[in-house]
Amino acid sequence: MSSTREALAAAKRVVVKVGSSALTTAGDGLDVARLDALVDAIAERVSRGTQIVLVSSGAIGAGLAPLALGKRPRDLATQQAAASVGQLALAHAYAESFGRFSLTVGQVLLTSDDVVRRSHYRNAQNTFTRLLALGAVPVVNENDTVATEEIRFGDNDRLAALVAHLIGADGLVLLSDVDGLYDGDPRDGATRKIAEVADESDVDGITVGMSSSGLGTGGMVSKLAAARTAAGAGIPVLLAAASEAARALTTAEVGTAFVAADSRLSARRFWLGYAAGASGKLHLDDGAVAAVVRRRRSLLAAGITGIDGDFQAGDVVDLVDLRQRTVARGVVAFDAHELPDLIGRSSHDLPAEQRREVVHADDLVPLRP
User: Fold this and answer.
1) Hey, is 9 helix, strand or coil?
2) For the whole model, what pTM was predicted?
3) For 209, phi and psi rounded to 5 degrees?
4) In which band, very low, low, confident or very high, does the pLDDT at 210 lie, cut at 50, 70 and 90?
5) What is the SS3 assignment for 263?
6) More confident residue, 293 or 117
């Protein structure tokens, strides 16, 4: 067994994420048998001394049948109405199921604001810490009843990766209706399941698509992004089928494992790289990309080829390469209207008051493109 799977099997604090398609069906809503099987696996792991935080989708799916909705609604208002009804059903089902093992459930509903704003981030962190210390199992979901298009996470896979770092998790397990990452469409018999992702070369050229269940918002695209986010921040990840939850949470000898980076990002650098919202973009030439990503240097005006957005000094911006890939994020030191006269110019050609880094190395986080 690989060291990554051994680390996941031995982890003392784990975030488990389960998707809508693993818990609900469009016609019948919440599938209690599937939910109970998941809880069985989690309770077994908890009995061995592991603290578990469960990030669960399914609120909207659980609300479809009671509201006589045949499929997931497209408009935000109806999604929020379905979530309002379904969240009660989902929370009640989890409370009853975990109650079979005398485990207490605590519901935590989050919007992206709770992670993006640093003060909210600390409040959420304190809540999780206390719930786990009291022996409860926090069940997390995006607060779909109030989230808007501007503040929503977009999918619970990203939410799970953010929560994993927020609570200092030793592992992240992503459960869905797919049993791992494939090098193509898994419905095609010629594709191959990838056992382990150690670096970016292992997923180069892989095309992944959206979920076909019609119940979730993610699919393999969001799962791969979440796995790369968590692994890049120093947290090992396992992507597996919900039907194999028991093995995923014991030996971890199923699915696809993602090897964690050697060092874990600090809370501030993780927030900067993955949680904070970007207010604009800085376009970099190849030399600037090499300096920022490989040599971890500050970004100077000479390496910038263009800007997008209306940002102010102190805002977070994306740094993109010539292929339009985001290669880093950082806190910009200039307002957007100041930069057009500076970009492409060497520091010694600038006025003394403008001879400073556009993004300082201490305020910059390289990302996996």
Assistant:
1) helix
2) 0.81
3) -120, -175
4) very low
5) coil
6) 293
